[in-house]
Design a protein that fits this description.
Length: 102
């Protein structure tokens, strides 16, 4: 992973799920990212296709990345449903924050 990718991942860790209070990376919602020139494309999912937070996440992610990395002019957030999200995708830190692990 290069330095720019690390900075994007760091920015993504600042995006909290407002319902759970855990960041989208530790929740396992972010499946990947690709930086090409001044553009970044992020592939992610939601805990459920019925989750109403698509617009919230899209705006929050774009704002944080553009604030932290002004050289990236375009942020594309793409939601996918395959593979579907499951609690097994969460990090140990997310499990701890949610009280699932001591």
């Amino acid at each position: 992973m290069n330095e720019r990718e690390e900075r994007v991942w760091k920015a993504l860790r600042e995006v909290q799920d407002p319902e759970l209070g855990v960041n989208v990376v530790d929740l396992g919602l972010v499946y990947g990212l690709e930086i090409l020139g001044a553009s970044v494309s992020i592939t992610m999912t939601m805990t459920s296709p019925a989750c109403p937070l698509n617009a919230f996440f899209t705006e929050s992610i774009a704002t944080l990345i553009k604030t932290n990395m002004p050289e990236l002019k375009s942020v594309d957030v793409r939601f996918v449903w395959d593979p579907p999200w499951s609690p097994q995708k969460m990090s140990e830190e997310a499990r701890r924050q949610l009280g699932w692990k001591k």
